[in-house]
Structure formats: C-alpha cells, structure tokens
Specification:
This protein is of the alpha/beta class and 380 residues long. The chain has two domains: 195 residues, Rossmann fold (3-Layer(aba) Sandwich), CATH 3.40.50.300; 153 residues, Rossmann fold, CATH 3.40.50. Helices cover 44% and strands 17% of the residues. A six-stranded mixed beta sheet has the order 6-11-10-9-8-7, with helices on both faces. Strands 2-3-4-1-5 form a five-stranded parallel beta sheet. Helix 1 packs across helix 4. The two termini are 40 Å apart. Keywords: ATP-binding, Nucleotide-binding. Pfam families: AFG1_ATPase. GO terms for molecular function: ATP binding; ATP hydrolysis activity.
Length: 380
C-alpha cells in the first residue's frame, strides 16, 4: 500500500492532472497517489547536490530513496514512469527495459573478460565504472522481473555497487519484491538482493480501478482495409482513442548503438508508416526494442507484397513475430485483405504464419491479455 507522501503537488502530479483535465486519462486515486510518490523521489533528487567524478569514485554519496511501483498490467505504471522521467530536470538519467539493461551488463562483462585486465579484475566493477563516469544519478527500469539464474546471481553485486555510489532506482514491476525469482533455482542466494532492494526504494502497490490498456481496444475494429482518405480518417480516429486524444510527438527508440525514428508516440503507443519499419535496414533486435518500448503499435499503409517487396515482406514477418511474442496491441491499415497480403513464393510459408497471427491479434481474447515477458537473448 501507499505510504503518506510529503509532496502534495509537484511536476508529476501536475502533468497527471493536466492529462485528466484534457480527457486523455480518467482520474484514478491510486494513480494520483503514485504520482505523488514519484514527486517525492524528484524532490529528493533535486535537493541532492551532484558530485563530480572524484566524488563519485571516492566519496560516499548521499543516497536518495527510489521507488518500486508494482501492480497488474494496464494500470498505468508505464504512463506514470513516462511523466516522471520527463519531469527529471537533469541529463544524468537513464530509462531502459529491465531485460535490455541486464543484457547490456552481460555483454559488457563478456567483452571485459576478453581483455588483458579481464582475467584478474572484477567484471561487474568494470561495467559499473562507465555508468559512474557518465555521472549517472537516476536509473529507471521498466518491468523489473527476474526469471533466470544468470540475472538472479548477478543482481546483488551489481546494485550494491550502484547504490553505494548514490544511483537512485525507480522501477515498475508486475510483482512485489518478495516474489521476484519465485521458485527459482538456488533462490536462497538471491534473497540478499531483495533485502538490499527494499532498503533502497519505497515499495508501493498501484491498485488502479481499471485495466486502462484493455479499455483502449474494447469493442474496436483494429484493422482497416483499402486506401484513401476514409481509411486514413479511420486510423486517425483509432489512434486518438488509443492515446486518449493525445496527437503524439516524434520520438526515438535506441537500439544497438543506433536510433530508430518514431513518427508519433503518445501514452505508451507508437504510430509508424509501413515504410518506417519494413523499408529501412531494421532487424529482429530492433523490432524487439520497439516491442519492449510500446504497449500498442499503429501501422499505416501495409501494402500487398510481391517479389519486388521481398525484403520488406521478410521484415514485416519479423516485426509481427516480435509484436505477437510480446503481446503488443496492433492496429493497422492494409491495402488488401489479410489472406492476399503475400504474393512472394519465397516467403509464402512464413506469411501463412504471419496471417494466422494477424487474425489472432485482432481477437478480443488477444486484446484482453497483458504484455508477455518476451526475453531478449544476451549478446555475447
């Protein structure tokens, strides 16, 4: 449950109230309380004077208590994290999906072990130092969920070093800290991390009244067929329903050292043209990043794909596979009925699976489910 918040009004609460005032959100007491707790964290961060590199490395910083916000899917955790992260006034902050962050840590450790120093030095310390050198003060992790032993055995060593150097953690999760890595192999070795985590964050449950993500799509036809202004108008209407009336702004998804432009994003949703995703040099890991970044994706202008669009067809297949595996909600406009999308003999079999998934992704059963924990494979 929520503890009393010392902040009655702050940037996160104000941003939340503005969304309610213009009809993008329905006021929810639990979400309002969570916004106040995020304002508390923000007040602490603003009051803490940043230290220089030498201070980060050699002085014991004053820790600012973070927040671990847990609750069922669709209750607004990601939306509140959006508001909080946007309100943080300094650049020494980072927001990333938990599994993406851990994959980066594993990749950094593996690379360090291959160096001359890697045989004797601590690889965890090696990956933490660059974060501290960058001045990192705030780490925001979406969907904190521990399911494999490699992460479970690493987390205490990693976060003990980050917390000791004054890095504040704000995380969202579907489970309480005590249920992390539940029934996992050698879980007793993981328990010290849970104690460490609870000592560094306020644990709060977001008991919102509605599954707002589900409400966006309830009773909606999520696909449109054909072309022209009528289809575009239908997709515009659906986009505004998904975003609560927010028109959206351009954004970027960072993926493996490059930036993927997002033409429009708002309220956890993204809108792309077909060419933005399937006629650019994007691959499976890029689509995984997108699937972890947004809970809903709108795609305009999916064409019929013949041999001249073979590469685009292959990317479209990969895109749908990753959105489906993650449980992302899809709305799209198609030039032709689903069964007529693929005309390329080389991708005919794969397209059968894609069409089957597209049919399922418009069903009430699929739209009613939450996001799935589709794990990103660690890069060696």
């Amino acid at each position: 449950m929520f503890s009393a918040s010392s902040v009655t009004s702050g940037p996160v609460s104000s941003a939340y109230a503005a969304l309610v005032a213009r009809g993008a959100l329905t006021a929810d007491p639990a979400q309002r309380d969570a916004a106040r707790l995020l304002d508390d964290v923000l007040v602490g961060l603003e009051a803490e004077k940043p230290k220089g590199l030498l201070g980060k490395l050699f002085e014991k910083p004053q820790a600012v208590k973070g927040l671990y916000l847990h609750g069922e899917v669709g209750r607004g955790k990601t939306m509140l994290m959006d508001l909080f992260f946007a309100a943080v006034p300094f650049k020494e902050k980072r927001r990333v999906h938990f599994h993406e962050f851990m994959d980066e840590i594993h990749a950094g450790m593996a690379a360090f072990r291959k160096t001359a120093k890697g045989k004797d030095a601590d690889p965890v310390e090696a990956v933490v130092k660059p974060m501290l050198r960058s001045g990192l003060r705030l780490l925001c992790l979406d969907e904190f969920h521990v399911h494999d032993i490699t992460n479970a055995m690493l987390l205490y060593r990693l976060f003990d070093k980050l917390f000791a150097r004054g890095v504040t953690l704000v995380a969202t999760s579907n489970v309480v800290p005590d249920d992390l890595y539940k029934d996992g192999l050698n879980r007793q070795l993981f328990l010290p991390f849970i104690d460490l985590l609870k000592s560094q964050v306020t644990v709060a449950s977001l008991m919102a009244q509605q599954d707002y993500r589900r409400m966006k799509f309830s009773g909606q036809q999520v696909y449109a067929f054909g072309s022209g202004p009528e289809v575009r108008a239908e997709m515009d209407r659906l986009w505004l329903r998904i975003t609560g009336g927010e028109a959206g702004v351009p954004g970027v998804v960072e993926s493996i050292g490059r930036s993927i432009p997002v033409p429009l994003q708002a309220m956890g949703a993204a809108r792309f043209g077909f060419g933005d995703l399937c006629e650019k040099p994007l691959g499976s890991r890029d689509f995984v990043r997108i699937a972890h970044h947004f809970d809903s994706v709108v795609i305009d202008g999916v064409p019929q794909m013949d041999r001249s669009k073979s590469d685009a067809a292959k990317r479209f297949i990969l895109l749908i596979d990753n959105l489906y595996d993650r449980g992302v909600k899809l709305a799209a406009s198609f030039a032709v009925p689903l069964e007529q999308l693929g005309l390329d003999d080389k991708t005919a079999f794969e397209f059968q699976r894609t069409v089957s998934r597209l049919i399922e992704m418009q069903s009430e059963e699929y739209l009613a489910k939450g996001l799935r924990d589709a794990h990103i494979e660690t890069v060696a």
